[in-house]
Amino acid sequence: MSKQPVKPGSVDPLDFLNIDALLSPDEILLRDTVREYVTNEITPFVADWFEEGTFPREKATEMGELGLLGMHLDGYGCAGMSAMDYGLACVELEAGDSGARSFVSVQGSLAMFPIWAFGSDEQKQQWLPGMASGEFIGCFGLTEPDAGSDPSRMRTNAKRDGDDWILNGTKMWITNGSVAEVAVVWAQTEDGIRGFVVPTDTPGFSTQDIHKKMSLRASITSELIFEDVRLPDGAVLPGVRGMKGPLSCLNEARFGILFGAVGAARACYETALSYTLEREQFNRPIASFQLTQRKLVDMMVSVNRGMLLAVHIGRMKDAGTLDTAHISVGKLDNVRMALDVARTARGMLGANGITLEYPVIRHMTNLESVYTYEGTNEIHTLILGQAITGISAFGV
Span 17-34, mean pLDDT? Predict the structure, then answer.
């Protein structure tokens, strides 16, 4: 599937800056493998999933067979790939649908990562191999109805009862919540915020799916409810205390998002380019009009800029030189860029832009969620403001 080198004096409208030249042959092979999977197994069906508000359970095992679940982790059945590999996979998955990328991000970066990074040997052996294969689905319980951008004020709590813990509270907007076999849940304790590995069949644990969503419909979103959930001491993640635990998981997920958003933007740009070359008005393709070409050029430049930013951040992560604020740059700008590209493409398709026959309206509405979750646009702005001024504006 690899393309032929572009000669000087000619350009590829789908890779204008020849960004493929920045990737190794192995990275291109990985990227093309995921792209082929998305082309064959996601794209032809995702409009129906979106309309029905579902995401098929069997996709978990398919993605597990491809090595996509926890792909950037080592051992326990995980593929042990690079951060760049993970990012490139996220580009292709979100080019299909944000729900597909969200599934992989939540499974690998939010549910598997904390067990891998902070869990006991017993927890790792019990859960990670099955999660890597897709046999077990995981979810991540941090956000609450009254604690979104300020998770340190969470009300979910766990109290000691002999050698056990009793967990009570509610989590909201939890991807995969009702289909998960295990939940990584963060709760207030006498020792500060701690993480708990909670099998979802534990008595007192229940879920309610969130319906009537107009975004991320090809993704299961749930409320988690804990009513005197009794957990053994072995359920606690022993390797971390405080907000460092959940925030480190969010940074892993945000890294995937800053790549994934480029995939959604690319899909919208490519759809608009193809559509305007074929659609005729006034006896000529609408791509021949100046206003249309201006929009196409702006979209092409934006997508290429976003991909260059993602590749640079990916290389920094693999080199160990990445600061958390760098991730905020990528999440802030690439999602903002993608949403702008999607909205422009929607208008260029006219009435066809609002139907699920084309992917644009689906990407546009999905990106409204991506703009908000894993740190809102405003939160990432304040993170960067603090990074460049040394002054925190949170809570001001």
Answer: 97
